[in-house]
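re: that chain from earlier
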Amino acid sequence: MSTLIRSALLVKFSEIARTLSVDPERMIRHVGADRSCIVSPDLHVPEPWLANVLDASEQASSGAAVGLLMAESWRLSDFGPISLLLQHQPTLRHALGQLETYRHLLSESVLVHVEEADAVAIVRLQLITDRPTPGRQPVELSIGAMLCLMKSMLGGKWKPRSVHFSHGAPANLHVHRRLFGTNVEFGSDFDGIVLDRHDLDRPNPLGDVNLARYAREFLDQHPRGRKISTASNVRRSVHMLLPRGQGSIEQVGQQLGMSARTLQRRLGQEGQEFSSLVNEVRRGLASRYLADSRYPVSQVAMLVGFAEVSTFSRWFSSQFGMPPTRWRAGTDH
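^ sequence. v structure.
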């Protein structure tokens, strides 16, 4: 089943494409979609459509930062049905929590996780996709939209400590500096935004508990999008936990607010097994990390949940028919 996103992203794309002399309708047809996707913001469409459109537009416009240009024009209202709920959250921390709760109304692909240490907080963003890599354009669009949310809560003049991208720096950084400022780091270990920890709990001057409750009740009474399965929730949790050396059924269950036994029962009702889901996520992460030469095999082993490289190598060989070093050699160009 394809990962779905809200078609508002394609509507936003159509607005930016014209400024780059790119025909949005031709691009939409190129990925097998139809015109309704760029005029109706509340459809739910396959995530690869957006990624393919952005990649093709980047090539057609000689490397333009299409994703960032879309993010630069992003407004809180572009979050769609949950905009009112986000606007009236008491703090940024609460707003980030609501993004996860109502992600089925936005994008099933985006995973947001907050880490806190001393005086800083890291808002990590991960795109869950079947592609070997998420791609520069979708990642930059997602980080830019996240910045919009933060500024709506913290003030238009607020700036993060730094912005991080795991991909390399493009030739032209003009739009990056205009949108994020000068503290943009490429080739990082993660995609995300670093901010002062106290910003997570700074009171939102626009927050209104009554309007927030009204918005939440409306969303709960008029659900849109498809119901998120337990298996999908498990995949998201494993994506987040494995690189942290976790990922047991007890740890995933705790993340999802249920016992291991309850989690097993719900997966069984969906015809799924926990071990198969972990293996599925592990395969995707292993191939993604190994395709990036910056990660030594020993680090990849830890990032996908193995304490020993030898154990990782045996598992990888059983899955891909060759050891990780040979697989990596075959993907180098």
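The chain is about 50% helix and 10% strand.
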